[in-house]
Amino acid sequence: MSDSLSHFALKSGDQFPSIGLGTWKIPDEVLPTLIPEAVSLGYSHFDCACDYGNEVAVGEGLKSAIANGTSRDDLWITSKLWNTFHHPDHVRAACERSLSDLGLDQLDLYLIHFPVTLAYVPFKERYPPGWFFDEEAENPAMKHVKVPYSDTWGAMEELVDAGLVKNIGVCNLGTAMIRDLLSYARIHPVVNQVEMHPYLTQQNLLRFCQENEIVTTAFSPFGASSYVPLSMAEDSERLFDDPDIQKIAEGYGKTVGQIALRWAVQRGTVAIPKTQTAAHLKENIEIFDFELSYSDMLAIDSMNRDRRFNDPAEFGEAAFNTFYPIFD
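Below the sequence we write its predicted structure tokens.
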């Protein structure tokens, strides 16, 4: 099995596994057994976040995997700083809470989840805090506060200095915000995690990140699948039903999911598909024994519709009574 694309080198020198397991929306009761099962199949990269509300369960799974003989040094654990903890006074406490929940002493990667600054909600009041400021209000909404991104980033750098995290990065940033961040960052971001799939290829953003030694992580690499149940996508937008990519998959004797993931890593991005089944865990990681042709890579690139499913301008207003655009 070829492993030339199984890891990507970060600017820090660390090797970042190109396929990980995304833990968004995976139930607590599943994770303690799913995590060690994934490790047994060859996974080492697990993408987590405070906001997912399941880091304790992920930690139980990691503990089990380590007890079964896996070295902590062979695992890559990512977590994310939530929107309510952007003020420098709260960044370290938020990181330490994730570390405690995950049962770890250090994160391999810590990301700022969104360029969204919301009012602080204490742990004892509500954790994870979610998007609403006051859930009991007559008309609950998001409460924006003014915290410069540079202040948050400075506190993220201090986490590296303190040895709590090895690498730091960002999520959901476009080129303008990254360019601004690079102008003042003492420690440069090594990763930008964004929505990316054949219907949202983001070619310019990917190229810009590559030219600035920032590895792109593609969340929702299967597109609409995670969003149809949330009424954020239509059934007709499912990548798995696209006849063009189905035809490509048939030509390689692979599934549509495997083609989407191979396209992702072959263009230089890390992919973090989510699944709860052993069969799909196995399928998703078996993408290193074939290579897409140049013409098929171009064909998938041409499927771009600039279709974004995860957009705070839309779900913020629909679900949280707040219009909060972050993308142009």
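The mean pLDDT is 97.
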